[in-house]
Amino acid sequence: MRPIDITEETSTQLVRRARKVDRVLAETYPDAKAELDFDNPFECLVVTVLSAQTTDKRVNAVRPTLFAAYPDPASMAAADRAHLEQIVGPLGFFRAKTESLLKLSAALVERYDGQVPARLDDLVTLPGVGRKTANVVLGNAFDIPGITVDTHFGRLARRLGWTQETDPVKVEHAVGALFPKRDWTMLSHHLIWHGRRRCHAKKPACGACPVARWCPSYGTGPTDPVEAEKLVRTEGPN
Fold it and tell me: Which of 14, 71, 183, 189 could, after both became Cys, cross-link 32 (CB 3.0–4.6 A)?
């Protein structure tokens, strides 16, 4: 198999190819979803903020203790800093993350009566919340379509030839233009799951990739099926 040539691809062909890839990834990962655990919008917001520079599995491990102690913005805003640092300590950067949670919770109490707003323009005004976090919350806590451009999503969007942009906001807009808005949240899950399980940053499992025939970057990693299969993960990184 050779990489697909997209040098003369029209915009219509790009849309068709991109949507075909998403359909195949949906079939490959039928259980794709957010890998952070949460029970409500506040928990979704907090665990997403905490997930920066650590793994979802580590965040999930501290989540029960964190929300047993501080189940809502009011209680977290009034939390003892040392106690909060102790809880989030295993995640690294615990002082900065504690500061973010205290300021974030206080802002929710002061500006939004302790409720997480369901608008992107409001979410991004909160301390420690950027577009990526806001779109995670919108898509997964409020069922409002959003594209989550994390490192996996951006890498795959470029490898698949959907965009050459490196700025996350530009990637979000470029890829969003290829898909119906209703598909944005699940598209994000599909690409993130694929990035964590097969299309790795350093050594993608090209020979075991279900969308290889539509990928102009095919051959970046091993193309031998047996060798590539050894690189496939059954779940995201720990």
Answer: 189
Token couple for 41: 């919008």
- Residue 34: φ, ψ to 5°: -65, 135
Residues marked active site are found at 132, 150
For residue 99, CA distances in Å to 20, 94, 104, 176, 200 come to: 43, 8, 8, 33, 32
Q: What is the CA radius of gyration of the chain?
A: 19
Query: What tens digit of pLDDT does each residue of 46-105 get?
Result: 999 999 889 999 999 999 999 999 999 999 999 999 999 999 999 999 999 999 999 999
Residue 167 CA: distances (Å) to CA of 37, 74, 181: 28, 35, 20
Tokens of 94: 């615990």
